[in-house]
Amino acid sequence: MTRLSLLRPLTLCIMAVAGLASAPLYAQSSQDQSSQDQASQEHAHAEATFAGGCFWCMEPPYDNQPGVSATISGYIGGELENPSYEDISRGGTGHAEVVQIEYDSEQISYAQLLEIFWRNIDPFAVDRQFCDVGDQYRSAIFYHNDEQRELAEASKAEMEARFDREIATQIVPATTFWPAEEYHQDYYQKNPVRYKFYRFSCGRDGRLEEVWGEEAGGPTFE
User: Fold this and answer.
1) How far is C-alpha 69 from the chain's CA centre?
2) What are the φ and ψ backbone dihedral angles of 38, each rounded to 5 degrees?
3) How far is the C-alpha of 95 from the C-alpha of 171, rounded, in Å?
4) Catalytic residue at 13?
5) CA-CA 20 to 30 A from 52: which of 12, 59, 129, 146?
6) Exactly one of 54, 57, 131, 202 is catalytic; which is it?
7) Contacts with 102 (C-beta within 8 Å, 6 or more apart), sequence order
8) 132-133 and 68-76: which strand pairing?
9) pLDDT tens across 173-192, in order?
10) Which of 11-20, 66-75, 112-121, 207-216 comes out lowest in average pLDDT?
11) Strand partners, 102
12) Quick check: pTM over 0.85?
């Protein structure tokens, strides 16, 4: 009995020390897993920014795509801070009307977003899109990282090979994005009659069909 009584505290002490030693390892493992989960989440939730003329018309092609959580009309590319629609409409600020897309890259890829983009613009028009004239209506891809830049450049090269002519669409780094006024957001849903009249009178769909044929408007991914 005496020997067992002496061994029991020693055993408990050894177990306690072992427990203390494993605690930092467990904590480190939890931190590593948390960092990996956060990195995965940041990678999955991404942004893409495209200029394709009137931003009203660039929201609909993306809104029903899987993994797209938001489309926001706005302005990018100029130096004027917090520009208004009136500022942009007058021209000279360097900004372009754009749609910024928030998406889950695990559900829809940037390459797929590009595929939709091209089929909703006139890639040959310089400083204009359809009936809207001015550099604020230029077509452009504003990339957010090197991967997006590389994919954008590859897709542009593919378009030039397809049409055997120069593509006017710019590929430039994204700068500060300024959301447009609230009445511009989801304009096609808030004002469907006015939107359809504008789109028709601007000749957008006719020109898209002329350039892209049955591919006009782009695919809807499942």
Assistant:
1) 10
2) -65, -45
3) 14
4) no
5) 146
6) 54
7) 45, 46, 47, 68, 69, 70, 71, 72
8) unpaired
9) 999 999 999 999 999 999 99
10) 11-20
11) 47, 70
12) no
CB atoms within 10 A of CB 208: 20
Q: Which has the closest alpha carbon to 94: 64, 137, 50, 136?
A: 136
């050894």: which residue's tokens? 14
CA-nearest of 135, 131, 165, 171 to 151 is 171
Residue 141 is which amino acid? I
Retrieve residue 100's tokens.
Answer: 């910024």
